[in-house]
Design brief:
The chain is an alpha/beta fold. The chain contains ten helices and twelve strands. This is Type II glyceraldehyde-3-phosphate dehydrogenase.
Length: 290
Amino acid sequence: KDYKISGTIESALDDCDLVIDAAPGGQGYTNKKNLYEPKNVMAIYQGGETTIGDKAVSDLLFNSRANYDLSTGKRHVMQGSCNVTGMGRILEPLRTKFGDNITRFDVTLVRRWADIEQTDKQVKDTIEMTEKPHHGDDVKTYFGKDSPLFVRAIKVPSRQMHLHIMDIRFKDQAPKPSEIHEIFKNEFGVVTLWTAKGTKDVRDFASTMGFNFTDTNMIHIHANMTVSIGDTVQMMYSDDQTGIVIPENHMLMQSMLFGKSYQEAFSHTESIFKMDEKKKKLEEHFAKTD
């Protein structure tokens, strides 16, 4: 498009209170050192950065479900990636409910190859294994470094969301699937679906719901795939890739800029993204049929 652009990043930062940095992975750290810190500007960094090692952009990886209060007063915070954010929305409610009765989480991330809008990115006809995926270590920054969480990841030739396959092991007999689903009944940003055959079904319906944002901004538990055998529950949920982190960035921005409480930030975020309405429409459309 024929946009007329003038000025510099530096001049824009002079009139800026906070930057949401969406630069390519690793560039955020360079921007912090060369731009934001010299200008004394707050910044939120995205999932391509790190909170570990010499190139850490922050000492906090944000997940509103796990550590919202820790972000207040911070000037530099990293927002977790879509996969890391999604795992937090599932793991934290499970830990709150069952605590030490859970002995281990095993998660396989089936990652989409590219976002729908990334038309310049070729989707290759292969299944690619990810060696030493960062997602598990990222989650452990807020879930606990000694948490019994084990993550493997593959990338598949699709643009239609991520899918997580999670095995949850308990000390004794595992809960029934209905008990697992009940935990998420009123959980923000998590919807329970019964009849979606695949991730594209969810995205296609979301585009017809009449909201300004066609992303669902949610995790979708595929309830018909939840099983309980012995000491293990297996569940599958799809993750609305980049859409899931947009409300999270909005929550974090309110904490950093205005020091809002979780409930205040949540209410304002809900007023914009209408996630409760989306949840009701999705659950009605993909409701259990028997």
